[in-house]
């Protein structure tokens, strides 16, 4: 075991022969990134995403009970803005909202539509236009019986930093939205991640892509979505966009991503509090990538798809032993 002492925290890098990523399948869905992802009715689900910037985004929906065998549920869902949309399982339903349409093509747009489904096949538009401005790449979590939407960007390829948001909205039904914080304490950003651990919402990293690239590795937490505490201004994982995050075994997990300085990242980090982070080293791991899906299902951490140069349709899983201690 190697120990790396950093100011303000300790980052531990460890490799264990009995902890490895397993390639479960090369799925039948077309390789992609930026897709919606859900765990719903004891299955893994993906929907939509991005193939390239000069065509409309896909609108297919797939599910799997084991990560190996996949079923096409809907080849042409009614929502259009499926690139970097926000997705969530809430009140025993699938939800997808916001997102980007048509890449760099004429007529491109962001959305504030809210869609929901009980089966992934039939979709209902709950809100033709939510109170929050049309946007993509925001955070979306469930917290205290409500959905919470955090930040994002209003214009993907063509907006500047004024298009970035740090507002916080919540809703109990997807139709009526309450502005909880017009300007949260964390700086305006997109391509970040939001998760919930121990009754706190966490906002991690992110920044902006074009025209003014900047990336962050700060971590913020809040119990009420209004009052925020900075857990660290600089986590040991490098600043990045387009990464994934999850909560697994009582820990925050950060996986992969992209930065202008490095290109794709392939590292995995975990923390119990957002302040103290440890890196997980395994003998087998997926190729560095960005805009992949990270989900927790059947007591495993799953990674699906993403841009690994080229786009990927791989499905990987990681199982920690019951007695695992970092």
Describe this structure in words.
The protein has 326 residues and is mainly beta. The protein has one domain (2-318): Kelch-type beta propeller (Neuraminidase, 6 Propeller), CATH 2.120.10. Helix content is 0%, strand content 47%. The protein is built from no helices and 28 strands. The strands form seven sheets. The protein has a six-stranded mixed beta sheet with strand order 1-2-25-24-23-22, with no helix packed on it. A four-stranded antiparallel beta sheet has the order 3-28-27-26, with no helix packed on it. A four-stranded antiparallel beta sheet has the order 4-5-6-7, with no helix packed on it. A hairpin with a 7-residue loop joins strand 10 and strand 11.
Q: CATH homologous superfamily name?
A: Kelch-type beta propeller
Structural class of the secondary structure composition? Answer: mainly beta
Mean pLDDT across the residues is 94
Strand segment tally: 28
User: What would you call the shape?
Assistant: globular
Beta content comes to: over 45%
Unreliable parts: 1-15
Provide the CATH topology.
Neuraminidase
Could you give the order of the helices and strands? EEEEEEEEEEEEEEEEEEEEEEEEEEEE
The CATH class name reads Mainly Beta
CATH architecture: 6 Propeller
Distance between the termini: 11 Å
SS summary, helix count:
0
The strands making up the biggest β-sheet line up spatially as 1-2-25-24-23-22
Largest sheet: 6 strands, mixed
Number of domains: 1
Q: Helix share of residues?
A: under 10%
Radius of gyration: 18 Å
């Amino acid at each position: 075991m190697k120990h790396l002492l950093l100011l303000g925290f300790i980052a531990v890098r460890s490799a264990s022969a009995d902890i490895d990523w397993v390639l479960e399948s090369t799925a039948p869905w077309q390789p992609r990134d930026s897709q919606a992802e859900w765990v719903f009715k004891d299955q893994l689900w993906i929907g939509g995403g991005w193939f390239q910037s000069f065509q409309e985004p896909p609108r297919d929906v797939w599910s799997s009970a084991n990560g190996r065998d996949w079923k096409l549920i809907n080849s042409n869902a009614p929502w259009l803005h499926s690139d970097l949309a926000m997705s969530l399982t809430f009140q025993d339903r699938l939800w997808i909202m916001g997102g980007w349409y048509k890449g760099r093509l004429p007529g491109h747009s962001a959305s504030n539509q809210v869609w929901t489904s009980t089966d992934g096949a039939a979709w209902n538009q709950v809100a033709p236009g939510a109170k929050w401005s049309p946007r993509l790449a925001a955070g979306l979590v469930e917290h205290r019986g409500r959905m919470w939407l955090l930040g994002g960007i209003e214009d993907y390829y063509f907006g500047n930093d004024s298009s970035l948001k740090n507002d916080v909205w919540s809703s109990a039904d997807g139709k009526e939205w309450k502005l909880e914080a017009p300007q949260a304490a964390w700086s305006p950003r997109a391509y970040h991640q939001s998760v919930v651990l121990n009754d706190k919402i966490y906002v991690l990293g992110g920044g902006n892509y074009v025209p003014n690239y900047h990336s962050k590795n700060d971590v913020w937490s809040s119990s009420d979505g209004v009052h925020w505490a900075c857990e660290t201004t600089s986590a040991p994982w490098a600043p990045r966009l387009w990464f994934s995050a999850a909560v697994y075994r009582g820990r925050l997990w950060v996986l992969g991503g992209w930065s202008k300085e490095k290109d794709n990242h392939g590292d995995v980090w975990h923390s119990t509090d957002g302040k103290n982070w440890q890196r997980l080293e395994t003998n087998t791991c997926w190729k560095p990538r960005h805009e992949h899906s990270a989900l927790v299902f059947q007591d495993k951490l799953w990674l699906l798809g993403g841009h690994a140069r080229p786009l990927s349709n791989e499905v990987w899983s990681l199982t920690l032993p019951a007695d695992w201690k970092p």
